[in-house]
Amino acid sequence: MSIVKSDLIKQLSKNFPNFYNKDLGKFVNIILKEIQNSLRRNERVELRGFGVFFPKLQKKSIRRNPKTGDKVEVPEKKTINWKMSKEILNELNDK
To answer: How buried is 76 (Cβ within 10 angstroms: 0-12 exposed, 13-18 middle, 19+ buried)?
Structure first.
């Protein structure tokens, strides 16, 4: 199962009926934009009880195109890693 932003806003509107959906949508957009901005600034983002997002620099490398077998040089790039919290890990493993 995946969750999309509209489903998240619907769930928030059920839990907080005093807020307009339009305001909840703005709230979700602000949170996601702040996470993006922090990652762009190479800062780690910690959401307690959920996990940590952190940027990581992937070194340049030479890889192989599986279709043609040719070697391809891949430049260095930033990736985003996520480490789950211990609470989620324990829930997934029924501890």
So the answer is: exposed
Q: How far apart are CA 58 and CA 17, in angstroms?
A: 44
Amino acid present at 6: S
Q: Residue 4 pairs with which residues in a beta bridge?
A: none
Q: Does residue 6 sit in helix, strand or coil?
A: helix
Instruction: Name the nearest CA neighbour of 47 among 34, 56, 59.
Output: 34
Low-confidence residues in the chain, pLDDT < 50:
none
Q: How far apart are CA 71 and CA 26, in angstroms?
A: 45
Spatial contact of 53 and 36, defined as CB atoms under 8 Å apart: no
**pTM: predicted TM-score of the whole model, two decimal places:** 0.77
